[in-house]
């Protein structure tokens, strides 16, 4: 548990929402979409505006983006609808993973949508929403893959759920150390 500046406790636990379809009857989503999505949520003890800044200003995002042990090089960000964000994510063993995203929707400070891939193909559509809460901001990160097999591959082969948790924990640590 961490504390906001006021000293009040806030929830910082993870909520991974890969909920069985039968339990999601009230949501307007097709079974097809449910099987293709990966959703992570984390409540952060910061304002939406501060989180938005850390996510969209290149000098900030480059310092925390990615799972533990990974760094980013060759970063370029044209932050506008239709603009590209490119970088090489470098693994602890030196393996380079080219990344290229195209921004589709930018609604400061609440929603960011982009197609994410490697420059040759799109892997998934990412949607990040920031919702104000009593304790700060609920960040929801949703990745929608072209098919269930693609989603399952990143979960099983690349550890996408654990990597996503580490990724958002790094965001919180960066905010605390550099922007709060």
Explain the overall architecture.
This protein is of the alpha+beta class and 180 residues long. 28% of the residues lie in helices and 38% in strands. It is built from five helices and ten strands; from the N terminus they run E-E-E-H-E-H-H-E-E-E-E-E-E-H-H. An eight-stranded antiparallel β-sheet has the order 3-4-10-9-8-7-6-5. Strands 1-2 form a two-stranded antiparallel ribbon. Strand 5 (71-77) and strand 6 form a beta hairpin. Helix 2 crosses helix 3. This is ATPase.
Briefly say what this structure is:
Belongs to the AHA1 family. The protein has about 180 residues and is α+β, with helices and mostly antiparallel strands. The chain has helices at about 30-35, 50-55, 60-65, 150-155, 160-180; strands at about 1-5, 10, 15, 35-45, 70-75, 85-90, 95-105, 110-115, 120-135, 135-145.
* pLDDT < 50 stretches: 1-29
Largest sheet: 8 strands, antiparallel
Helix percentage = 25-40%
Rg estimate, integer Å: 16 Å
Structural class, from secondary structure content?
A: alpha+beta
Q: Quaternary arrangement of the chains shown?
A: single chain
Number of domains: 1
Query: Approximately how much beta-strand content do the residues carry?
Result: 35-45%
CATH top level assignment? Alpha Beta
CATH superfamily: START domain
Which architecture per CATH?
2-Layer Sandwich
Task: Measure the end-to-end span.
Answer: 17 Å
Mean pLDDT: 87
What sequence of helices (H) and strands (E) makes up the elements?
EEEHEHHEEEEEEHH
Structure annotation, total helices? 5
| CATH fold topology | Alpha-D-Glucose-1,6-Bisphosphate, Chain A, domain 4
Counted beta strands: 10
The coarse overall form would be globular
Strands of the widest sheet, in order across it, are 3-4-10-9-8-7-6-5
Family: Belongs to the AHA1 family.
Protein name: ATPase
InterPro entries: ASHA1/2-like_C, START-like_dom_sf
Pfam family, one: AHSA1
């Amino acid at each position: 548990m961490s504390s906001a500046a006021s000293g009040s406790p806030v929830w910082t636990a993870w909520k991974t929402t890969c909920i069985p379809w039968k339990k999601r009857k009230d949501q307007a989503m097709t079974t097809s979409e449910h099987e293709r999505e990966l959703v992570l949520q984390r409540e952060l003890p910061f304002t939406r505006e501060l989180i938005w800044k850390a996510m969209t200003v290149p000098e900030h995002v480059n310092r925390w983006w990615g799972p533990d042990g990974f760094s980013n090089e060759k970063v370029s960000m044209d932050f506008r609808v239709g603009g590209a964000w490119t970088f090489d994510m470098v693994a602890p063993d030196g393996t380079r993973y080219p990344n290229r995203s195209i921004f589709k929707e930018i609604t400061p400070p609440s929603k960011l949508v982009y197609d994410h891939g490697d420059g040759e193909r799109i892997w998934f559509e990412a949607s990040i929403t920031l919702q104000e809460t009593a304790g700060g901001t609920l960040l929801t990160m949703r990745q929608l893959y072209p098919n269930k097999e693609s989603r399952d591959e990143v979960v099983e082969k690349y550890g996408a759920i654990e990597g996503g948790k580490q990724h958002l924990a790094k965001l919180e640590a960066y905010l605390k150390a550099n922007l709060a």
